[in-house]
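User: Can you help me understand a structure? I only have the sequence.
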Amino acid sequence: QVQLVESGGGLVQPGGSLRLSCATSGFHLNSYAIAWFRQARGKEREGIACISPRSGPTYYRDSVKGRFTMSREQNTVHLQMDSMKPEDTAMYYCAADPTFACEWIRNTNDGMDYWGKGTPVTVSL
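Assistant: Let's start by predicting it. Here is the structure, written out as tokens:
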């Protein structure tokens, strides 16, 4: 049974940092595309970062490129978020799929078979 459990969300000031984690189980992490999505209140969900399977490249949405870094460590995926802005406030979701092409992450809000329940992030003074 595939499971994705996010953690690490919380309140951070503008300019600060936060590290999200996604604990995975039930599948071979290295064989799946793993992505982070986010959805702000009243807005559509958007894909922000994706690691390709088998040590392939990582892709980022333009709005987070250079500030967010996604990494994979054994059965856990991390999203390091630096230089955070109020517009980063959202519910953040981890998702996995065996065939998703990560280069599309910037243009999609879905396409993944498995989802976590999310962790909330608030950037505010």
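Now, to help you interpret it: The two ends are 40 Å apart (CA to CA). The mean pLDDT is 96. Let me know which part you'd like to focus on.
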